[in-house]
Specification:
- By secondary structure, this protein is mainly alpha-helical.
- The protein has one domain (about 5-115).
- It is built from 6 helices and no strands.
- The protein has helices spanning about 5-30, 35-45, 50-60, 70-80, 85-95, 100-115.
Length: about 120
């Protein structure tokens, strides 16, 4: 399986989620420099729900040539499907709220279906 489309789709999805989270965060905390928001993204418990997707993307990036990617693809499919408690509640809200996130979700699901 060519992982480039999967990585690209998951990165786009992650970017849209982070952008939406930033807009929400800045409504409460005021505008922030990118470096300051990055620190909040890393350190604030409010953003911990993104960790499963972030970790999955890093694991895909670190996948070595010849290593079986099937396990990570299956994990990504499970993560984006309804029911992943630690991730999906907030994720589902964002998919419903943001057309950009919904579009990125659809692209990621399609990329994960490729043989």
């Amino acid at each position: 399986m060519d992982l480039a489309p999967v990585r690209s789709a998951l990165l786009t999805l992650h970017r849209e989620l982070v952008d939406l989270e930033r807009r929400h965060y800045e409504k409460t905390h005021g505008r922030m420099a990118s470096a300051d928001f990055l620190q909040a993204l890393i350190n604030e418990p409010a953003f911990a729900w993104l960790a499963p997707l972030t970790t999955l993307i890093v694991r895909l990036e670190e996948l070595e040539e010849g290593e079986d990617a099937g396990v990570l693809i299956a994990e990504a499919r499970r993560l984006l499907a309804p029911g992943h408690r630690a991730f999906h509640t907030r994720y589902a809200e964002h998919v419903q709220e943001s057309p950009e996130v919904a579009f990125a979700h659809g692209a990621a699901v399609r990329a994960l279906r490729q043989p």
